[in-house]
Design brief:
40% helix; single chain; 70 residues
């Protein structure tokens, strides 16, 4: 029998990652970030500083936890 959970254990991160993730500037307001996520139908954005370096990841789940009305 095929066991999907066992198959996933052998995958590498590069096989499951998004190669070109959507990004957002660190100074963008949360309401704008949420609207952008909805428009692009994604649940997370890579957050970048003014130099284009990754400083974090913003997830829609985090937005709803902190500010349910966003």
């Amino acid at each position: 029998a095929f066991d999907a959970q066992e198959e996933v254990k052998h995958l590498r991160a590069e096989e499951m990652m998004t190669a070109n993730p959507l990004t957002i500037a660190a100074d963008v307001r949360l309401a704008e970030a949420e609207a952008y996520m909805q428009e692009k139908q994604v649940s997370a954005l890579v957050v970048q500083d003014t130099l284009g370096s990754t400083v974090g990841v913003l997830q829609i789940y985090g937005l709803k936890h902190v500010a349910p009305s966003v």
